[in-house]
Design goal:
It comes from Formicarius rufipectus. The chain is of the alpha/beta class. The protein folds into two domains: 1-59, Phosphotransferase system, lactose/cellobiose-type IIA subunit (Methane Monooxygenase Hydroxylase, Chain G, domain 1); 64-225, Endonuclease, Chain A (2-Layer Sandwich). It has helices at residues 2-14, 18-38, 42-53, 56-59, 78-82, 111-123, 142-158, and strands spanning 63-69, 92-96, 130-135, 163-168, 176-179, 183-187, 216-222. It has a seven-stranded mixed beta sheet, with helices on one face. The chain is globular, with a radius of gyration of 20 Å.
C-alpha cells in the first residue's frame, strides 16, 4: 500500500499536481515507516530506510502556497480552507494564537471560532486525538470567561476522545496552525477572518462559507516530516 501511494504521488508530481502529490508522498512514507518499524532484520531495515530517504519528496525541501482572501469574499469556511490538508494521517494539531479571548470581542479571535475549528477536526476525515492550544490570557474581567469557555470546549472534546492541551504565554505573537502530517498554515488574522454577521438571523450566521471575510493572506507550507525509527 505504501509503494502504491508513492507511485501515485510520482504520477501527480509529473502532472504538476504538487499539492496532491505531497499528500500521497506523506501517506506512502508513513506506511513504509510502519513496515520499517515492524521489520526485525537490521539489514532489511537499513535498506528500507535508504529507499525512503531517496524519495523525491524528501529531497525537495519546502513547499509554499499563498492564498489571498479579498475584502467581503465568501466561500472560505474552515472546511473549504483546510480540507486539502486534513487526511487520515492527521492525529495531532497545534494552534498558536494570542487572541483566543472573550466571545464579545468581535475584533479578536473568538472562542466561538476556535470551537468551530475543533468541530471541523472532530468531523474528520482526519483522526485527531490531540489538539495543542497556545494563547495568551485575556486582560481584566474577561479572563474568567475565557478560561471557563476553554475548559468547556476541553470537556466537550473529551467526550469525542480528543484531548485539548491548553497553555498560556505572555510573549506569543505569531498565528499558525500545524498538523502532524507536515502542513503548516499561517493566516494573517488567525481564524478570526470573518466579518461580524448583520444579525442573528442573517444568511452566513451559521454557515461560514456564506459569511463575508476581512481581507487577509493565507500562507500554506509543507516541510519534511518524517519520524525517526
Amino acid at each position: 500500500a505504501g509503494a502504491e501511494a508513492v507511485k501515485r504521488a510520482v504520477q501527480l508530481d509529473v502532472a504538476s499536481r504538487f499539492q496532491e502529490s505531497l499528500v500521497c508522498y506523506q501517506e506512502g512514507i508513513d506506511l513504509l515507516l510502519q513496515v520499517v518499524k515492524a521489520t526485525k532484520d537490521e539489514a532489511k531495515k537499513h535498506r528500507y530506510r535508504e529507499k525512503i530517504s531517496d524519495l523525491p519528496f524528501l529531497s525537495d525541501g519546502k513547499y509554499h502556497k499563498q492564498i489571498r482572501i479579498e475584502e467581503n469574499a465568501t466561500g472560505f469556511g474552515y472546511e473549504k480552507l483546510f480540507h486539502e490538508y486534513l487526511n487520515e494521517i492527521v492525529s495531532e494539531v497545534w494552534v498558536e494564537d494570542p487572541y483566543i479571548r472573550n466571545i464579545h470581542q468581535a475584533s479578536r479571535y473568538s472562542l466561538y471560532n476556535f470551537l468551530r475549528f475543533c468541530e471541523m477536526l472532530v468531523k474528520g476525515p482526519c483522526k485527531v486525538k490531540t489538539i495543542h492550544l497556545l494563547t495568551s490570557y485575556d486582560e481584566g474581567i474577561g479572563r474568567s470567561q475565557q478560561i471557563s469557555g476553554l475548559e468547556e470546549i476541553q470537556q466537550s472534546l473529551r467526550n469525542y476522545g480528543v484531548t485539548l492541551n491548553i497553555e498560556f504565554s505572555s510573549s506569543i505573537h505569531d498565528r499558525e496552525i500545524r498538523f502532524n502530517n507536515g502542513w503548516m498554515i499561517k493566516i494573517g488574522r488567525g481564524l478570526d477572518y470573518f466579518k461580524k454577521p448583520q444579525g442573528r438571523f442573517s444568511i452566513g450566521y451559521c454557515d461560514f462559507d456564506l459569511r463575508p471575510c476581512h481581507e487577509t493572506t493565507v500562507d500554506v507550507f509543507h516541510t519534511k516530516h518524517t519520524k525517526k525509527m
